[in-house]
Structures are given as structure tokens and as C-alpha cells.
């Protein structure tokens, strides 16, 4: 059974490799989350945003068209078994983009999100109260101490948390 599946997978992979460009595996993000990502990027203060929902890849983000040299981004989508159009964001990282916005409450619209890291940006404001309801397992610390806040720290709070970072 498994061998059969693997065989089919190989055939499909080979076919997509050789007869179709580009050769990304399909992992189509659901439209609600495509929209949520765009709002999140706007809230973070990103001027540019281009996302490929079919491959789950950020093609353009940030305040400049060419990203800062040491910037880093990663986004992971995971699909429900047997349905490559039922994929959800599980991880989102945008580091060293000089983003000037605030922490986006809209993260709650990514219900499978577990890991988020917006380190080394210029985000300002409070930790959104709404995040407390999420299943976040780790959240980067933009002060660059390498410390992570865990979900039990994501309690509603009113004092501002400044996410300014050293130059
Ligand atoms: C796959 O997921 C999409 C998006 O959630 C849904 O519209 C579609 O009906 C699903 N297909 C199957 C075969 O379950
Ligand atoms: C950051 O937010 C605080 C509190 O809302 C505000 O007083 C301050 O001016 C903001 N700083 C920047 C650089 O936006």
C-alpha cells in the first residue's frame, strides 16, 4: 500500500518536475488565511506584500523592494491529509525587515499558527490581548536575547511592550 503510494508520488513528482514549471509542491493556502496574511503584513507596516498561495511562499515583503541584506523570512503551511488545497499557516517569521508597525491582532485569523517570530523589527505597542486565545508555542523576542516567550506568558496585559531592537 505504502509502496504503491510512494510510487504514485514519485510519478507525480517526476511529472511535475519535468513537464511543468515551476516545480514547487502544491500546498494551497485557504483563502481566509491568504487574506489574513495580507492584513498582517499591513499591520506590521510592510509596504510591499506579495504572497504565492499555491506554493506558500512570501515573494515580497518589507519597507523596501529589495530586502535588507540580513533579513530572514520563513512561512510554513501544513495541509490536511489528502487535501492539498486545505492548507494552513503553522509558522511565520519575519526578521530584520525594519518593520515599523504594531503587533497584529489578526494573527488570530491563522488558527493553526504555532510559531511566530518578528524579531529585530521596530514594532511598537502592546501584546495583543487576542493572542492569549491562540495556540502559540513560541514567540521570538525582538530584543535579540535569544529568549523565547511561551504561550503561558501570553496573558492579556495592558502595559506596552516595546519591541524596539538594537541597531
Ligand atoms: C479540500 O479543501 C478545500 C478547502 O478547504 C475544500 O473546499 C474542498 O472541498 C476539500 N476537498 C476535499 C476532497 O475534501
Ligand atoms: C510607541 O507606542 C507608544 C505607546 O503607544 C507611543 O507613546 C510611542 O510614541 C510609540 N513610538 C513610536 C516610535 O511609534
From TrEMBL:
Its main location: membrane. Transmembrane segments: none annotated. This is LRR RECEPTOR-LIKE SERINE/THREONINE-PROTEIN KINASE RFK1-RELATED. The keyword Transcription does not apply. Keywords: Kinase, Receptor, Signal, Transferase. Residues 1-18 form the signal peptide. InterPro entries: LRR_dom_sf, LRR_Rcpt-Like_S/T_Kinase. It is found in: Membrane. PANTHER family: LEUCINE-RICH REPEAT-CONTAINING PROTEIN DDB_G0281931-RELATED (PTHR48006), LRR RECEPTOR-LIKE SERINE_THREONINE-PROTEIN KINASE RFK1-RELATED (PTHR48006:SF72). Gene3D superfamilies: Ribonuclease Inhibitor (3.80.10.10). GO terms for molecular function: protein serine/threonine kinase activity.
Amino acid at each position: 500500500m505504502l509502496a504503491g503510494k510512494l510510487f504514485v508520488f514519485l510519478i507525480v513528482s517526476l511529472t511535475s518536475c519535468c513537464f511543468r514549471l515551476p516545480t514547487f509542491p502544491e500546498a494551497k493556502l485557504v483563502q481566509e488565511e491568504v487574506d489574513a496574511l495580507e492584513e498582517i503584513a499591513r499591520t506590521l507596516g510592510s509596504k510591499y506584500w506579495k504572497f504565492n498561495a499555491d506554493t506558500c511562499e512570501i515573494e515580497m515583503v518589507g519597507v523596501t523592494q529589495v530586502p535588507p541584506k540580513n533579513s530572514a523570512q520563513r512561512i510554513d503551511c501544513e495541509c490536511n491529509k489528502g487535501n492539498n488545497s486545505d492548507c494552513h499557516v503553522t509558522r511565520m517569521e519575519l526578521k530584520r525587515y525594519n518593520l515599523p508597525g504594531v503587533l497584529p491582532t489578526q494573527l488570530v485569523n491563522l488558527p493553526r499558527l504555532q510559531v511566530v517570530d518578528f524579531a529585530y523589527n521596530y514594532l511598537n505597542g502592546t501584546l495583543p490581548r487576542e493572542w492569549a486565545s491562540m495556540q502559540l508555542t513560541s514567540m521570538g523576542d525582538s530584543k535579540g536575547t535569544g529568549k523565547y516567550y511561551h504561550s503561558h506568558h501570553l496573558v492579556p496585559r495592558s502595559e506596552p511592550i516595546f519591541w524596539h531592537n538594537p541597531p
